[in-house]
Amino acid sequence: MTYVIEKMSRAHWEQVRSIYLEGIRTGHATFETEAPDWERWDASHLALARLVALACSGRVAGWAALGPVSSRKVYEGVAEVSIYVGGEFRGKGVGRALLEALVRESEANGVWTLQAGIFPENVASVGLHLACGFREVGRRERVGRLKGVWRDAVLLERRSRVVGRD
Length: 166
Hints:
By secondary structure, the chain is α+β, with helices and mostly antiparallel strands. It has a single domain, classed as Gcn5-related N-acetyltransferase (GNAT) (Aminopeptidase, 3-Layer(aba) Sandwich). It contains 4 helices and 7 strands. The protein is globular and about 45 Å long.
């Protein structure tokens, strides 16, 4: 199946939000329990590297974006990855296409480190990140509670081979 990767716009939001809600319902995608409105989501993500994968029908099949890890200037080149694929499009290469495009876009914008915190139960997402050049740097045990249950997160990172190699 072929997908077109393009910059996410406000016009994509309802479909992006719907896919985010699917991820929330799995219980293995995020600690969030509800999807925010556009304004809150927009304010919590970097303006660069917001991407959607469009199926041939024009529907959003998945999305990826970056969030800041800190407001401190020293960390301006470090970002946290969010990537979500709609249920009917999982296992069809959408996630890989999005993550590879996100890496290219992040490097074009001076980001030298990408990080991701993933529930260990989300084996597909951990595998996708590893296949795209991330490495496991640790496991945060009982880092947060979701619906009253303590959850671990696998911490992965990808260092750019292009940016930050002075």
